[in-house]
Amino acid sequence: MPKLTFVGGIHPYDGKDLSKDKPIKAVLPKGDLVYPLSQHIGAPAKPIVAKGDHVLTGQKIAEAGGFVSAPIYATVSGTVKAIEPRRVVTGDMVNSIIVTNDGNYEEVDYGKKIDTLEGLEKKEIIRRIQEAGVVGMGGAGFPTHVKLSPKEPDKIEYCIANCAECEPYLTSDYRRMIEEPEKLVLGMKAMLALFDNAKGILAIEDNKPDCIEKLSQLTASEPRIEVYALKTKYPQGAERQIIYACTGRAINSSMLPADAGCIVDNVDTIVAIYQAVYEQKPLMHRIVTVTGDAINDPRNFIVRIGTNYAELVEEAGGFKEQPAKVVSGGPMMGFALFGLDVPTTKTASALLCFTKDEVSAMEPSACINCGRCIDACPSRLVPRRLSVYAEKFQEEKFVKENGMECVECGSCSFVCPAKRQLAQVIKSMRKLQLAKNRAKAAPPPKKEDKPAEAGKAEEKKAGEAKPAPDTKPAETKAAENKENTKPTGSVDGKAQDAAPETKAEQGKEEKKDE
Ligand code: SF4
Ligand code: SF4
């Protein structure tokens, strides 16, 4: 069995012992369920219910807003209370459907379950995944049906299950692999059914020997699936790093995994593929790790999407001590939260509550040229130099020095003895550069005068994402491929992401581990 890795990386305290041995517990929501219409990359979903409507568990309440988009389903039965902007983990206000839970959990009929893929055509597999609203649940939220529809499917040689879970504290994938490994294997078989020349790899960090053993046993008679034990190192689960570790193939920001013959999906996404294809069930649940030293009873919950974060803290026994820092997602790449009154979404992997905010307590000092940030960088960059260019807004130098190749993993900041916020300034500079590239690539406004209403209609149409012909220069694609991976739709216009191009957006997927 290969034991593979990548160059660079770090070994932070993993904190996984807090929750790794706690079985997954189901949470029944008590309050209203909030479904943001943008919880995926691409066009926001469009509501197909109205205030006052009665809905059932598993009923579609918003349809996909375009090809690069995903529908949203009610996760409880109840009444639509409102459709209005609500705060999400990024701090943005996002248009959302709010459902009052009637506590009956009445369900729709999902249709016939199947035990085998025999007789199921490829296009039906894709249709089921699309219809179920499956998106990358590792944090990126890229619609899975788009990822599974590359231009040249015969050139896909590897379907990689990202089972690394390299972010500290996260144990949801670990529990899923221990408790429901069959679903992961069946989901992988559904993926492989789409790619005749591909081999399936279950890529697991070697700090999870029980998962490696269990999945190896389960796949012993599966000729197309193999388990790889990867060296435990952050960010092993980042897309480029896991592809390199598993195949020896390197991709950069101007390439998609499919360009290297690879498709990568994380554990929860592959289980959602299983549910969509075999059970015809839409994406309604996900596993969320609630942990950190401020939590009384850290554990993993299976959560109905839309459940409020505050309820998860309550389920975990509340706070031991008032937290100084609360993070949605992993500590390296997650979002620091303003408050707990936000809903879980398809991409919410964890809620971390810490009694200390070590980052804000840091006092940065001058660089001592120790070179540790260079050794740690998995993209083989020189973070100290890039951070100087970023601080001085020297864009040309930043780009020339490959600043756009940063995967925003945070390893450089983590190792810096001078406590310099390297990753943060590099990330800000990248965002600025990406925005400029987007503006340059945008078509010029049309000159002809149009009545105001007609103009608005066109604007709306342009907001509907479609797979676009790939006509951009390489450097533009490079920049766009590395854009922020989080769903960013917002009603206040801060980060509206209504019209991504398929290829560019696909490159964002699985940047995160989770
Ligand atoms: S954040 Fe960027 S520059 Fe820093 S280590 Fe990660 S990839 Fe390198
Ligand atoms: S790790 Fe920090 S102190 Fe060391 S070279 Fe990099 S920026 Fe300078």
Descriptive overview:
The strands form four sheets. The chain has a six-stranded mixed beta sheet with strand order 2-15-14-18-16-17, with helices on both faces. Strands 1-12-11-10-13 form a five-stranded parallel beta sheet, sandwiched between helices. It has three domains: 3-106 and 113-285, NADH-ubiquinone oxidoreductase 51kDa subunit (Rossmann fold, 3-Layer(aba) Sandwich), CATH 3.40.50.11540; 286-361, Ubiquitin-like (UB roll), CATH 3.10.20; 372-441, no CATH class. The longest helix has 20 residues, at 422-441. Strand 6 and strand 7 form a beta hairpin. The protein has 514 residues and is an alpha/beta fold. It has 17 helices and 18 strands. The chain has helices spanning 122-131, 144-147, 172-179, 181-192, 209-218, 239-247, 267-278, 309-315, 358-361, 372-376, 383-391, 395-400, 411-415, 422-441, 452-462, 474-481, 502-506, and strands spanning 3-4, 25-26, 33-36, 46-47, 54-55, 60-63, 72-73, 78-87, 93-101, 158-163, 199-205, 225-230, 262-266, 285-291, 299-304, 325-328, 335-336, 350-354. Mean pLDDT is 87; it is low at 448-514. The chain is globular and about 65 Å long. Helix 1 (122-131) packs across helix 7 (267-278). One iron/sulfur cluster is lined by residues 376-379, 381, 383, 406-412, 422-423, 426.
Helix and strand topology:
Layout: E1 3-4, E2 25-26, E3 33-36, E4 46-47, E5 54-55, E6 60-63, E7 72-73, E8 78-87, E9 93-101, H1 122-131, H2 144-147, E10 158-163, H3 172-179, H4 181-192, E11 199-205, H5 209-218, E12 225-230, H6 239-247, E13 262-266, H7 267-278, E14 285-291, E15 299-304, H8 309-315, E16 325-328, E17 335-336, E18 350-354, H9 358-361, H10 372-376, H11 383-391, H12 395-400, H13 411-415, H14 422-441, H15 452-462, H16 474-481, H17 502-506
Parallel strand pairs: 1-12, 2-15, 10-11, 10-13, 11-12, 14-18
Antiparallel strand pairs: 3-9, 4-6, 5-8, 6-7, 8-9, 14-15, 16-17, 16-18
Helix pairs in contact: 1-7, 4-7, 11-14
Residues 376-379, 381, 383, 406-412, 422-423, 426 line the site of one iron/sulfur cluster.
